[in-house]
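Retry 2 of 3 after timeout on previous attempt. Resubmitting structure tokens to design endpoint.
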């Protein structure tokens, strides 16, 4: 898929989910590199950087996209020829996409160990990583039930319940405002992540924080399922995470409202680390306080190049 099509698909939510959009961004840059005509390195660099900026602008909150894009273009400025740049970007994109998919599988294997027979699980939105945990546990023969939120306004929960139902899992769809009502019977919560800051704060689909608060009140374990490329290196240097706001028509059509009515439609909210029992990643089950160390260990000196 080319850059223009990818940008539009991400903006329109045709491509959704942090991991999916990261892989789409990487693949779009590989497509640009593959189809670039000519042998002018400066022209190639200018085009790839313009593509980078347009892709990143399609979803400003998801650091997965930022990390996927920068992993794809890493080292391109050290190449002397267009062919060298092309080969590097295509190779980087393939490596990132494979690592992303492998991470989801590993997270499923690690997280499934936290699920026991008789558990009642609650999940939110449509997270590949969280669903990997649930499906892996089910395939291991464990017996449990799952509640999934509708996840307004885009109702990604419909995708979740259908996916789990096809697995044969006992799944119940609930409206978002029923979270506190069902929490009395829930034993564990598993959610995904769009971004995790250096101090362990989770930025995820709007409504995640209410799950965390309700879980905390009910003494229910709250787990985040996240690939480490969703850790935000920018937050190490004090940058704030941008909370994207989408079109008001997603909430209610303007013609059914009084002209004086305002609409607020944030896509994400923030959940403080104190409400998170653990973050399940491809490198293991870690505490929110370990995010900084994992991030700096993985990036090393490259972090200063990325931010600079």
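Retry 2 succeeded. Sequence:
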């Amino acid at each position: 898929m080319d850059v223009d099509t990818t940008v539009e698909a991400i903006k329109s939510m045709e491509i959704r989910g942090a991991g999916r959009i990261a892989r789409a961004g990487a693949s779009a840059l590989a497509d640009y590199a593959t189809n670039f005509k000519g042998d002018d390195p400066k022209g190639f660099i200018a085009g790839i950087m313009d593509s980078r900026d347009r892709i990143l602008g399609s979803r400003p909150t998801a650091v997965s996209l930022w990390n996927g894009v920068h992993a794809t273009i890493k080292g391109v400025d050290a190449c002397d020829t267009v062919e060298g740049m092309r080969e590097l970007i295509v190779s980087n994109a393939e490596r990132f996409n494979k690592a992303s998919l492998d991470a989801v599988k590993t997270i499923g294997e690690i997280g499934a160990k936290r699920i026991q027979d008789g558990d009642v699980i609650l999940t939110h939105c449509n997270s590949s990583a969280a669903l990997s945990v649930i499906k892996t546990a089910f395939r291991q023969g464990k017996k449990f039930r799952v509640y999934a939120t509708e996840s307004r306004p885009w109702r990604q929960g419909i995708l979740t319940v259908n996916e789990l139902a096809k697995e044969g899992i006992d799944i119940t769809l609930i409206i978002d405002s029923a979270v506190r009502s069902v929490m009395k019977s829930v034993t564990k919560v598993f959610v995904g992540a769009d971004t995790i800051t250096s101090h362990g704060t989770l930025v995820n689909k709007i409504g995640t924080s209410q799950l965390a608060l309700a879980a905390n009140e009910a003494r229910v374990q709250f787990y985040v399922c996240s690939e480490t490329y969703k850790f935000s290196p920018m937050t190490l240097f004090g940058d704030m995470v941008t909370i994207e706001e989408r079109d008001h028509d997603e909430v209610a059509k303007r013609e059914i409202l009084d002209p004086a009515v305002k609409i607020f439609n944030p896509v994400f909210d923030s959940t403080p680390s104190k409400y998170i029992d653990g973050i399940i990643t491809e490198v293991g089950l870690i505490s929110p306080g370990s995010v900084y160390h994992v991030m700096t260990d993985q990036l090393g000196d490259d972090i200063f190049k990325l931010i600079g």
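Attempt log closed. The chain has two domains: 3-105, 107-307.
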